[in-house]
Structures are given as C-alpha cells and as structure tokens.
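Quarterly update from the structural biology core.
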Amino acid sequence: MASLQDQLLKAGVVDAKKAKKLKQEQRKQAKQQPKGNAPQDETKQLAQQALAAKAAKAKALNKQQQQQAEQKAIQAQIIQLINNHRIATADGDIAYQFTDGKKIKKIYITPLLQTQLSKGLIAIAKLDDKYHLVPAVVADKIKQRDASVIVLINHKQEAIDEDDPYADYQIPDDLMW
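Predicted structure, tokenized:
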C-alpha cells in the first residue's frame, strides 16, 4: 500500500519538489518538538511530588526530634536546679500543709523554714513525687522553664485594696490550718 504522497505523485496532483519540501518541513517540526512523551512528564511530576513529600516528612520528623531534645534539656536543668539548691528539712518538727492540685499534702519543717515559707523567701517544688524546699529565686527560674514543678510560692501583696472590708483584719503569718 502506497502512502498518500506516493499516490498524489502518481496522479500528478503534486510534483516531486513539493513532496520533498513537505517531507523536510515535517522532519523539522518533529525535531523541534521536545523529546519524550506526556507520560514521562507525568512520571517526572509524580517523582518530584514524592521527593517533596518525603522532604516535608523528614523536616517534620526533625522538628519533632528537636522539640523532644529541648524538653529533655529543660527537664535536666530543672532537676539540676532543684538538686543543687534544695534546703534540708530532715530535722523538722512542724507539719506544714499545702495543696498540690486538689490534694492536701504535708511536709515537716523547722520554725525558721515555716517563717521563710510564709514570707515567700522559699518555695516548694515537686520532683519525682517528692517535695523539696528551694529558694524563691531558684523557684522563679524553675517556673520560667516549667510552672507545673513549683507547687507553692507565697508572694506578699504590697498594696491593699481600699474597698476591702477585711483590710483591718490581717492574716497572721503563723496561721496553721
């Protein structure tokens, strides 16, 4: 079966020069078109999308690991602050009661420590289900890192509200409940 071009040449509708010119133009057009078909472009896009998704997943995982490392570092700092600055309460004979969440807890302290606690000079911190007394300055540093570790810190109110009907009745520092 002869091509359409051969048939037109035999019929005399087209001469050989025009046929040759048409062939050359078709070759030029074929060369100018980019090599590769559409399915290859789709596979390239899919590969790029897969790489982008993989990179995003790796970035998210890296960020999560970095946050975990920061949390561990903060926890280590808190433990170090409490261990280095805790105040010994071994010889305490006064039961000091305080609230930890919704529970009332009790530690035994000396009268000097009781006075310091009531004035806000020392605070109570919780570490590994044990309660430790630390200076208020250290408690503030711990509170900046993790506020849930500090169980009790008394801050004195300097200004008394003028409209307070109980302003004349001050609460004693040594009040035990």
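Strands lie at 94-100, 103-109, 122-127, 130-135, 150-153.
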